[in-house]
């Protein structure tokens, strides 16, 4: 196979500061819901529920304020569950009428936590609840002063028990609300002083102002904090999920292979249990190290960090084949986050050390095969941990590979052997909302924090172990998602606050995991992936076998390192786009066990699929991969022509465009629907004047009816966006004649309006980076003669990615 390198395409681009915001070829607006002319009144059962909510709210509020043991200003918090999306119009009305200001949006912004800013105005809320409860049956709420409360399903006071989410006394994470209230700063000072007086081991960093990590807190201290400090939103534990060491197997006496270390290898930060300086890794471990445990970065008691480091450095070649020598794919830097397998993760310190590793040592890739325990609830928002990692990735242009977490093997074994039930079988085990099982809830198969992070890459596991034969055990086949791997937690089919989600609130690209790699299978020893072990380990010296998403994740990081080894100047979002662009997976109909399932379930487990090494770093003569790294303003549209060789006009062959877009963004904290407020999308269009493309109907600039924008923006305020998109367009021979030797790639950008003014200013005043990967392949109807790569090079302006050279001094080995 030819080794044709990927290249930047740098044809002259055009841009326009605005574009016509319509959808597709259809000029008619989306059909609106028919107006409901039924009488608008609040049902009697709803009045009774509101009466009970108010009674509980009043009692709990009074009790909390009477039982405070630490004096200071008070910030009452109330959570309201709405029947609709809580937008800017309602935000303004609830503030003006009831003195309530939002501090957190969840459940696609249909559930909102408020702080009471004005207690006098808030008495109106109580008055209106009483008026509703006492109103005669059948009374219309239209034109009534309490009409806003007809949108409320229920409400609750945020007391002590609604803040405490852990029984652990070590690794305590205090997550704070964000507030401009002067009482917030006073409470924060008092909280830090309280912790200092108790000589607590506290990590608080100004760069992450909304989290405080405390090494140890007694139950009484946790209750005191939750009972007195209103700014504390949650008290949780940052203890990691138990990691899997090796499974006992055949004892070996030596490693028996050498490692070739090429010059200029990319360094990957290993966030784990430390790394042992075993022989194969001796020349691959950099001197850069961070130790959160005071036990030594190069002491890996569990063996987990060492096996991860082995898979990052040696890649999928090592477990796939026994050889006398392997070529290293990466070097490693150690960030020892935990020592024992279920220690706490010091999140503020971890964020600080990742930032330092990037700024001081230039490390841009990291592997974190660690998670916070417990599966995310269906349709839950983004965790504080994910937010911190997303913010970090955006600010520093780095990329963290995060495992989605494992479903406990003992739990699976019990369900399959002791507590058998049809809903425990594959794949109903992952999704059966109406299950009759007494022992299993499919929510337990959802991803773990912080793998919902959008700027980084989350990895799930396939059951294969990279060896030639199918060695899977409990999973149906080695090509299936592993029984222990986790799925995305967004379920658009479930009602939220008793009302269904709108069609435009669903996003086909938004998914975690992003990618899958082999992770081995439970429970057979032969089903595991071969890993490196320390010769000093009590069992499994030198080598072992195990399974998990912890093993799949470093295979992804290793692929990313190989990309940067070959193309070191690429942005990390380009690395992400390349991985996504090469990813493929089986169609549901080709997987018998999914034949009665849905495409959405399979997608929720595999994301974009598994990247293919054969097309990751180069192409054959019948294809070419162009890269665009650029930036765009809010409201802007950009086009760049892609010229096509003349021979395609008469070849009679098809031309396929596989295009992937990735971009990082500054996340909007505690705002589920608007967490990603920046919209970008791409399309391939006719190579026309930019004014035509920006202002005309798509029927005029589109190549054909089926070629739509990768993502829609209609109803932008209620939409969920994705910052990782991939789609394909195929030009038939007739299309190639119509476009006359050129098409254009178009990119457009918008920002939501119902977000804080500070974010809107940030979005408007800054350019927004994006990366696009365009793989163009000639698909034969007649014969192909291997001309496409060279002809595309000849008719487009390109720059060699692999070398730092002058734009006009291109020396490609073709």
Automatic annotation (TrEMBL):
UniProt cross-references to SUPFAM superfamilies, sorted A to Z: Subtilisin-like (SSF52743)
Gene Ontology terms for molecular function: serine-type endopeptidase activity
Pfam families reported in the protein's UniProt record: Peptidase_S8 (PF00082)
Domain Peptidase S8/S53, first and last residues per copy: 266-609
UniProt keyword annotations, A-Z: Hydrolase, Protease, Serine protease
Keyword presence, Hydrolase: yes
Keyword Cell membrane on entry: no
Record-level GO BP terms: proteolysis
Region (Disordered): 14-37
Protein name: Subtilase family protein
Origin species: Chitinophaga jiangningensis
């Amino acid at each position: 196979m030819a080794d044709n390198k990927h290249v930047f395409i740098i044809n002259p681009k055009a841009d326009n500061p605005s574009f016509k915001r319509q959808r597709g070829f259809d000029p008619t607006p989306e059909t609106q819901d028919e107006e409901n002319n039924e009488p608008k009144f609040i049902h009697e059962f709803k009045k009774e529920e509101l009466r009970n909510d108010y009674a509980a709210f009043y009692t709990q509020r009074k009790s909390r304020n009477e039982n405070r043991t630490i004096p200071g200003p008070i910030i009452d918090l109330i959570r309201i569950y709405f029947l609709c999306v809580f937008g800017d119009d309602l935000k303004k009305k609830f503030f003006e009428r009831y003195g309530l200001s939002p501090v957190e949006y969840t459940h696609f912004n249909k559930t909102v936590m408020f702080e009471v800013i004005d207690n006098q105005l808030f008495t109106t809320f109580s008055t209106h609840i009483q008026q509703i409860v006492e109103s005669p049956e059948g009374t219309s709420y239209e034109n009534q002063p309490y009409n806003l409360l007809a949108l409320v399903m229920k409400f609750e006071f945020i007391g002590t028990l609604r803040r405490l989410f852990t029984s652990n006394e070590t690794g305590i994470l205090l997550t704070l609300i964000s507030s401009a209230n002067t009482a917030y700063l006073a409470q924060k000072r008092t909280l830090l002083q309280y912790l200092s007086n108790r000589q607590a081991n506290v990590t608080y960093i100004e760069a992450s102002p909304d989290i405080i990590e405390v090494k140890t807190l007694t139950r009484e201290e946790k209750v005191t904090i939750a009972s007195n400090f209103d700014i504390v939103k949650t008290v949780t534990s940052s203890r990691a999920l138990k990691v899997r060491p090796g499974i006992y197997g055949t004892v070996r006496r030596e490693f028996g292979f050498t490692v070739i270390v090429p010059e200029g290898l990319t360094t990957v930060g290993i966030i784990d249990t430390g790394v042992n300086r075993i022989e194969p890794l001796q020349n691959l471990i950099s001197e850069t190290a961070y130790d959160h445990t005071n036990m030594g970065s190069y002491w890996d008691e569990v063996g987990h960090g060492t096996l991860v480091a082995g898979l990052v450095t040696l890649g999928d070649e090592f477990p796939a084949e026994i050889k006398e020598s392997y070529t290293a794919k990466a070097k490693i830097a150690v960030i020892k986050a935990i020592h024992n397998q279920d220690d706490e993760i010091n999140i503020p310190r971890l964020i600080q050390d990742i930032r330092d590793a990037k700024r001081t040592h230039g490390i841009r890739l990291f592997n974190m095969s660690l998670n916070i325990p417990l599966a995310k609830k269906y349709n839950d928002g983004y965790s504080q941990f994910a937010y911190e990692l997303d913010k970090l990735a955006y600010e520093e242009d780095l990329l963290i590979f995060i495992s989605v977490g494992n479903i406990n093997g003992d739990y699976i074994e019990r369900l399959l052997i002791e507590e058998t039930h049809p809903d425990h079988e594959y794949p109903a085990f992952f999704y059966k909302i109406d299950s009759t099982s007494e022992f299993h809830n499919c929510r337990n198969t959802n991803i773990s924090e912080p793998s919902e992070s959008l700027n980084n890459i989350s990895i799930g596991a396939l059951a294969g172990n990279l060896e030639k034969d199918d060695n899977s055990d409990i999973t149906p086949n080695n090509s299936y998602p592993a029984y222990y791997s986790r799925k995305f937690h967004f379920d658009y089919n479930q009602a939220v606050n008793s009302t269904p989600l709108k069609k435009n609130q669903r996003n086909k690209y938004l998914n975690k995991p992003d990618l899958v790699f082999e992770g081995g299978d439970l429970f057979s020893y032969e089903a595991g992936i071969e890993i490196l072990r320390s010769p000093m380990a009590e069992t499994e010296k030198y080598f072992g076998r195990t399974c998990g998403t912890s093993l799949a994740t470093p295979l992804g990081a290793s692929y990313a390192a190989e990309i940067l080894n070959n193309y070191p100047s690429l942005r990390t979002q380009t690395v992400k786009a390349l991985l996504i662009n090469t990813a493929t997976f089986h169609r549901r109909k080709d997987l018998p066990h999914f034949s009665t399932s849905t495409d959405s379930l399979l997608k929720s487990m595999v994301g974009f699929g598994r990247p293919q090494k054969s097309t990751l770093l180069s192409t054959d003569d019948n294809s070419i991969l162009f890269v665009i790294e650029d930036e765009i303003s809010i409201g802007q549209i950009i086009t760049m022509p892609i010229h096509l060789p003349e021979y395609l006009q008469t070849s009679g062959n098809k031309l396929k465009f596989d295009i992937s877009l990735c971009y990082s963004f500054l996340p909007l904290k505690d705002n589920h629907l608007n967490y990603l407020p920046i919209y970008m999308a791409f399309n391939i269009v006719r190579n026309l004047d930019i004014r035509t493309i920006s202002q005309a109907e798509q029927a005029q600039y589109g190549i054909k009816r089926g070629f739509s924008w990768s993502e829609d923006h209609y109803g932008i305020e209620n939409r969920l966006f994705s910052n990782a998109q991939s789609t394909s367009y195929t030009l038939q021979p007739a299309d190639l004649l119509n476009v006359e030797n050129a098409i254009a790639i178009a990119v457009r950008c918008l920002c939501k309006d119902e977000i804080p003014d500070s974010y809107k200013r940030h979005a408007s005043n800054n350019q927004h980076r994006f990366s696009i990967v365009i793989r163009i392949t000639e698909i034969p109807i007649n014969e192909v003669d291997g001309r496409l790569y060279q002809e595309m090079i000849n008719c487009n302006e390109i720059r060699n990615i692999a070398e730092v050279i002058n734009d006009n001094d291109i020396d490609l080995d073709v």
